[in-house]
Amino acid sequence: MTKIDAKILEKATAWLAPNFDSDTQTKVQQLIDNNPKELTESFYQNLAFGTGGMRGVMGPGTNRINKYTLGKNTQGLSNYLKKIYPNQQLKVAIAYDCRHNSKSLAETVAAVFSANDIQVYLFSDLRPTPELSFAVKYLNCHAGIVLTASHNPPEYNGYKVYWTDGGQIVPPEDEEIIQEINALDFAQIKFEAKNDLIHLIDAEVDEAFANASVANADFKSPEKDNLNIVFTSLHGTSITLIPEVLKKAGYKNVHIVEEQATPDGDFPTVVSPNPEEPEALKMALELADKVNADIVIGTDPDGDRLGVAVRDLDGNMIIVNGNQTMVVMTDFLLQQWKNNNKINGKQFIGSTIVSTPMMGKLAEAYKVECKIGLTGFKWIAKMIKDFPELEFIGGGEESFGFMTGDFVRDKDAVTATLLACEIAAQAKVDGSSFYASLIDMYVSHGFYKEKLVSLVKKGMDGAAEIKQTMIDLRENPLTTIDGSKVIRIEDYQTATTTNMETGKTSKIQIPKSNVLIYYTADGTQIAARPSGTEPKIKFYFSVNLPLANKADFEAVEKQLDAKIDRIVLEMKLN
């Protein structure tokens, strides 16, 4: 049997102490006795916050999601809240998704908060993540928690922390909270609930959130009965709200994929409950062909991201990527604001450093500002907080997230679903379509084509491989890409941008992050970043060409696809 590292064994043995329950002690002892590899994976590090909070595999150990790692998070957050808001009656809201153990972990988190004399507003059943963001503001809470692992595999769960503005925690709060957590021992967690401080919430907040979604995304598109919609919640939480929001906005022709409508943490009908993956929408696309649907929408398990499929110019269903959905939605919102004479130079849209450069082109065309932040919607929420003098119109990121208005401070598939239907309904009345609208934008602003390549690297060895890849890209940078010279490299880890022609460097005014972006003379962009929530390294490609007219669309698209394929091959990522 493989020998167990002494430090790993010491950490694991500590979990055999009486302050850990008997079930945990038994599982840890079994790992010590029978599975040194899994024991090492479970204890070799402390599970840390990434771009979306804490996310990981469930099980015993410091590198796993369990009642103790989340209890320690919650105790640390409780201590921090008391320090920041002294002599106040503190309030937090808690929501959870459909995953295994989400409800029991949410109840554990509620118990710890209440044990620290904090009022808790706990949803009585599973709810979409954006509703938690809304609830924090609606109930005037100091913080919020969602128990979710988004679109990760079934063995994962997670813990997202929201602040008083309804957005996820950002600097300086995130690091200060982490310091409080790291200063604790597991024995210091207060698990004894004060039940009189725990309040269940449901219908009132549901109604308020649904009404706010309609208020922010219903643009009174005509002939809504003529729009034929297929919707799937992929066994997740959005089934609790999206059908109701569509109904409130006047959409009656909605076909739900019933086989995927029941929340289920095993996600039995899909390989991955990720709307970025075409396979996840397979059943919805099959139903769309049966009922001749105009649009298909599928959401991830916690209801904050959406995948969209629409009819192409030949009438075939095609999945549009997150960048394409984002620019169509943003353009529609900007046009509505323009039609109502609401644009006066004091508005902005938001995006991220790995999303399509086309967002900047839209901002120029409509004479609004485009603010760019790091990956993760918490940075777009922070923009709203940091620039109160500007009105936020909408914004998104390439990973299938979008936010309409600022009533929610996180990506919101509930409201974005309604917005997508509004766009499709209006386009249909105009003799166009969602997809044709996208091509019109390419003619106006340039044809930008993006692709994401994700390489899965699990465990300690995978983490080391990802680290080495980023080191190599920094220390041995590419000088040409597909025959085009690299003219600039942005390194967000050092917060510097380097002109490769002159060698001059300048500072990037964005928080540091492990992201590297190459820019070439022909307008190609390639970004590399390790995922903050999954064992992956991600490569984001953006290429572009002018599009003179719709008739050239297919030919130019083939050129762009071929270019991306050549780059992927050149970088040995296939």
The number of helical segments is: 17
The mean pLDDT is: 95
Q: Kindly identify the CATH topology of the largest domain.
A: Alpha-D-Glucose-1,6-Bisphosphate, Chain A, domain 3
Count of the domains: 3
Record field, number of beta strands? 24
Radius of gyration: 24 Å
What profile does the largest beta sheet have? Answer: 8 strands, antiparallel
Output the CATH homologous superfamily of the largest domain: Alpha-D-Glucose-1,6-Bisphosphate, subunit A, domain 3
In the CATH hierarchy, the architecture of the largest domain is 3-Layer(aba) Sandwich
Unreliable stretches (pLDDT < 50, length at least 5) are none
Top CATH class of the largest domain: Alpha Beta
- Which structural class is indicated by helix and strand composition? alpha/beta
Helix content: 25-40%
Q: Report how far apart the termini are.
A: 36 Å
- How much strand content do the residues show? 15-25%
Q: What best-fitting shape do the alpha-carbon axes yield?
A: globular
GO molecular function, one term: phosphopentomutase activity
Protein name: Phosphoglucomutase
Pfam family, one: PGM_PMM_I
EC number: 5.4.2.2
